[in-house]
Structure prediction request, 236 residues.
Amino acid sequence: MRKVLVVEDETSIREMITLNLQMAGYAVAPAETAERGLELAKAAQPKFDIAVLDIMLPGMNGYSLCEQLRKNDSRMGIIMLSAKSQEADKVSGLAIGADDYMTKPFGVSELLARIEALCRRVGGGNPGKVAAPVADKDSVISGRFVLDERSRMLYKDGRPVELTQVEYQIMELFVRNAGSALKRNEILEAVWGKNYCGDEKIVDVNIRRLRMKVEDVPGNPEHILTVWGFGYRWTE
Ligand code: CA
Prediction:
């Protein structure tokens, strides 16, 4: 059973999300504050698959919580909930490690769809493998990089690179299309799904984050190249 952490201080929203997720077959741990959410995440065995985090919380806010959760778990899918007035903050939420965001008010079916999509993404493979993979049919080699599709890990020069599942999916897309320029909306569709209703900025934010992890000099990328007015291209 998939485990979801829900951190939301507004009781009615928290209960609505919790109830609907439970009806959809998820194990849900609701929390009123980020501090409590963090406690639950630390104690959770096995770990949560997904976290749904409100941004405006009493005490620690959703951004800091997201950052804390990411420190301990790069595989968890994280969805941020923002109020309309925080539209501009969405991008900073993504920058610190969230996979997706939703603006309040939102429909429960939309939230469920996003959670299901994220679950599919975080679904594959076994976490925690540290040994570099040997080249076999489950790994793809691209220059200094090896993508191990079984464990969904990326290795650079034989060392594991900590990626979120969204980042992993983008890398998978890049490596499988090495040398080809990919349009922003192609990346969006391939990674976030055809029915994603957010904007293409989410791609740029994730690329920026990926460059920090993958490039020797993120400001002067050698692998993830910008194709101006178009999108991005991966080169070995
Ligand atoms: Ca709130």
